Amino acid sequence: MRAVIQRVSSSSVSVDGQEIGAIGPGITLFLGIKEDDTLQDCEYIINKTIHLRIFEDENGKMNLSLLDVGGELLVISQFTLYGDCRKGRRPGFSRGGSVEDAEKLYDQFVRMVQESPVKKIATGEFQAEMQVTIHNDGPVTLLLDSEKVF
């Protein structure tokens, strides 16, 4: 499982011109699911995201977590995080697994994060064409991988 997390001052997601989710200060998380991901991968990404100290303290140092600052979380599914661009000019997506399995795990991920102490959680729509508006704060953008390959 992979995630791109961005510290944001605000973020929103729309489908067909209708806003379906929005947050204030917090994190926008783009989530990529591959064929053999499990609930343990969900737990790793969730725990890392909500406890990662990427918010500034009173001295201007990144020393506070999403939970420490009472931040909000927007979760967006993004299968392209497993796009393989090493060969040719078109990305390959063979590690993505079945849409049905990925959707089940995405739904479980959302349920698990909703059970966390995060103040507000919003989501995109799985497999929809989405427009995401991000006001990146910093900018701070980080990559997470449950297999810890980076």
Provide structural commentary:
- This protein is an alpha/beta fold.
- The chain has a single domain (2-145), classed as D-tyrosyl-tRNA(Tyr) deacylase (D-tyrosyl-trna(Tyr) Deacylase, Chain: A).
- Helices cover 22% and strands 39% of the residues.
- Strands 1, 2, 3, 6, 7 and 8 form a six-stranded mixed beta sheet that branches.
- Helix 3 links the parallel strand 6 and strand 7 (120-123).
- The longest helix is centred in the C-terminal third of the chain and has 16 residues, at 99-114.
- The model has no long low-confidence stretch (mean pLDDT 96).
Unreliable parts = none
User: CATH fold name, please?
Assistant: D-tyrosyl-trna(Tyr) Deacylase, Chain: A
Question: Class, according to the CATH hierarchy?
Answer: Alpha Beta
Average predicted local confidence, pLDDT: 96
Total number of helices: 3
Q: What is the N-to-C order of secondary-structure elements (H for helix, E for strand)?
A: EEEHEEHEHEE
Name of the CATH architecture: 3-Layer(bba) Sandwich
How many strands, which pairing sense, and closed or not: the largest β-sheet?
6 strands, mixed
From the N-terminal CA to the C-terminal CA, the straight-line distance is 12 Å
Helix content: 10-25%
Helices and strands: which structural class? alpha/beta
Rg over alpha carbons: 15 Å
How many domains comprise the coordinates? 1
What portion of residues belong to β-strands? Answer: 35-45%
Number of strands: 8
Give the overall shape, derived from the CA principal axes. Answer: globular
Supply the CATH superfamily name: D-tyrosyl-tRNA(Tyr) deacylase
